[in-house]
Amino acid sequence: MCCSWRGQGFWRRPERDVRNVDPGPQRASALVRKLDRESFNWRVFSVSASGFLASSYSLFATNVIKPALYFVYPPCGRLGQDAGLVIDQVTLVGTATGMLLAGHFADLWGRKKLYGLELAILLVATAGVMQTSEGFLIENPDGTYRHSIDFYAAITWWRFFLGIGIGAEYPLTAVIAAEWSSTKSRGRMLAGVYAMQAVARFLAPIIGLAALRIAGARSGLGPDSPDDDLSRLVIDLVWRVVTGIAMVPAAFAVVLRLTIPETPRYHADIRKDTIKAMRNYLRLYKRRPQPSDQIEAEPEPEPAADGIGREKRFLYGGAWKYLCKTRAGKDLAVISLLWLIMDVAWYGLSMESPSALSTLWHDPSRPIPTTAALSPASGLESLIEACPDSDDWQTDPGRPSIYRVLENNAVRSLLVVSIGSILGNLALVFVIDRFRRRWILMTSFVMLAFLFALTGGTLLGTVERQQPHLVTTVFFGIMHFFFTIGPKTVILVLAVELFPTVYRGTFYGVSACVGKFGAILIRGIIAQTKNGEHELAKRLLGFVPLMLFAALVSWFLPEVQHIPPIPGAGSRVDIEDGNLSDGATSGSEADERRQVRPRAAGWRAIIQKLENKTLEEIPPSTQLPLEFEGNSSDEPMAEVGTRPAESAGLVASPPKSPRSYIEYRTRALPLRLNPNGAVPQSPYSIVTFGKG
C-alpha cells in the first residue's frame, strides 16, 4: 500500500538514520540552521493550504447560503429580531475562542497533537449544519405552524463549533507552516497558504451558482419561476450542497495532518529532544543524514539561573515576564491593535457583502418584476404572512425571485470580490520577499484610506442619480485587492514571525482573538445601520481615519528582513540615516538598522529579493535581561540573546546606573558578565569595559 495511516508514503520514517545523532544543544542549533537552508516544501504547503481552504470556504459560504436559509425557513422572530446577527456573532465568538485556545495549547502540548483536530471539529459541525431541519411540523388553530426543532437555534449551536474549528485553524496552520519553512521560503509559504482565503471566496459563489443551475434544470426551476413550494424544495437542496462541499478538502487534509511530523523547532527549542527533531526533519525532506550534518556547532552556554527556565515556559507568569522585560510586549500590542483595526474595516466591507453589492448594482430605472410574488399555491402562505421578517432573504432592492437573488449574488461576488482578492494574493506572493513587510502594510493602509474616502464620497454624490453605481463598484474591487495584498495577509504573516518558538502559538492566538472583537463590533454596527446608500457611504467614510491610524501604528513594527549586500560591492549605506560603513561589521548593523544595500545598486536594490531573518533572530531572546553583580538598580543594564545586540536592547551609550560601557560589534551571546572579572573570549562578541 503506497500510503498507510502512518504516512509512510508521504513522510519518510528514518529511525535507523538517527541512532548516532548527538543529542546536545549544539546539535539542535545546527539542525535548525540546516532547516533554514532548505527549499520550498510543497508537502507542507499542500497539508497547510488544503485545511485552510476548507475553513475559509466554510466562513465565506455564509454569504451564499444565508438568503437561501431565510427563504426556506423564515426566521419569524426566532433568535430575536435579527437571526442572522445572532448566528454571525456566535460564529465569531467561537472563532475567537478557537484562536485563543488552539494557540496556547499548541505551545503547551505540541503543534502535531492538535493539528487535524480542528478539522475534525469542522467536519462534525459542517455535517451538523448540513443536516439541520425543523423536524415535525403541525398547524396551530390560528393558522400558524409549530415545529419540533427550532431550526435557527440548531444552526446557531453548530455554527459555534464551526467557529471554533475555523478559529483553531489560524494559529495551528500559521505556526506549523512557518516552523517547517526555510528562512528563504517562509514569506512565500505563508502568503501562499493565506491565499487560500481568496480561493475560497472564488469557489463559494462558483459552487453555489453551479448547484443552483444544476438543481434548477433537473427540477424545472428557472430565473423567473414563482417563489412557491418547488422553489423551496430546490433551494433547500442548494444550500445544503454548498455547505457540505467544505467537507471534501477538510477530509483530505485531516488524514495528512494526523500523520505530519512535529516541527523540529518545537522538539529542539521546547522539548529539548534533538533526536526527535532530527528524525522529523529527515521524515519531511526524505534523505539520509549527510556528512555535513555532523559538523560542530558553536558553543551555547546554559541559560542563566534566573532566566525563564524550562519548567516555567508555559506558565502565564513566564510569558508575562517575557512581555514586560523585552520589546515583545510592544510588538504584541501593536500587532493586536492592527489586527483589530483591520478586522473592523475588512468585515465592514465583506460581511453582508451581497446586500451592499446589490445596493450598488441596483438600477432604479428598471421596473420591479412581478415574479417575486408568493405563489398562492404555497402551503406556507399563512406562515409567511405571519412573519414580520419573512422577506429577509430579499437582498436586492429590485425584489427579484429567489433564483435571481442567488444568481446575482454569486455573479457580483465573482466579478467584484473574488477577482480583486485573487489578484491581490498573487501580487503579494511576488512582492512579499522584495519589499519590507512594514512598508507593504503602511502603503496598503494609506491606499485603503484613499479608496474608502473616494468610494464613500462618490456614493454620497451619486445617491440621487437613477443609475447603478458602477464606478463605486469598481472601487469595491480595488479595495479588496489592497486588503489582500496588504493587511489581510501581511498582518497574519507578521503575527507568526514576531514571537519566539516557546510562545509563538500563544501570542498569535492572543492577537488573532483581539482582532475578532473588531469583527464582532462591526457586525453589530452593520445590523443597526443596514446597507442603504447613505448608511453604506457613511460607514465607508468612517473607515478612513482608522486606516490612517493603522498606517501610523505600523511604523512601530520591527523589521523581519534585511537587504543582502551584492557581492563585489565595496561600500554600504545605511538607509535609515545615510551613514556609510566600509565593509567592517559594526553596531549599526543591528536589528533595527540592518537596512544595508550597495550605494550604486540603483533600481536593482529596490526590486531584488530581501533576505528574511530567521525565526530565532526576529523576536527578543527568552533569557532575562543581563544584570551585573552588585547592581542594586531594578533597571536592567542590557538585554541579551542570540540576536544582534542593538535589537536585544544593548546600547552603546552608558546606562543610567554607571557600571560599564558595553559595545557589541557582532552577535551577543547570553553571558552573565562581571565588571570586575575576566571576559570570555568569543568570536561572536567583543565586549569592552570601562568604569562609568
Automatic annotation (TrEMBL):
Q: One Pfam family this chain carries?
A: Sugar_tr
Keywords of this protein's UniProt record, alphabetized? Answer: Membrane, Transmembrane, Transmembrane helix
Q: Which InterPro entries match?
A: MFS_dom, MFS_sugar_transport-like, MFS_trans_sf, Sugar_transporter_CS
* Domain of life where this protein originates: Eukaryota
Report membrane topology: Multi-pass membrane protein
Q: Spell out where the chain crosses the membrane.
A: 44-65, 85-102, 114-131, 151-177, 198-217, 237-256, 332-349, 410-432, 439-462, 474-496, 540-557
Location of the protein in the cell? Membrane
UniProt biased composition (Polar residues): 623-634
Does Protease appear among the keywords? no
Record GO cellular component, one term: membrane
Region annotated Disordered sits at: 574-597, 623-659
Q: Which GO terms describe its molecular function?
A: transmembrane transporter activity
What is the predominant subcellular site recorded for this chain? membrane
Q: Does the keyword Transmembrane apply?
A: yes
Q: Where is the Major facilitator superfamily (MFS) profile domain?
A: 44-562
Give the protein name, as stated in the record: Major facilitator superfamily domain-containing protein
Q: What is the lineage of its organism?
A: Eukaryota, Fungi, Dikarya, Ascomycota, Pezizomycotina
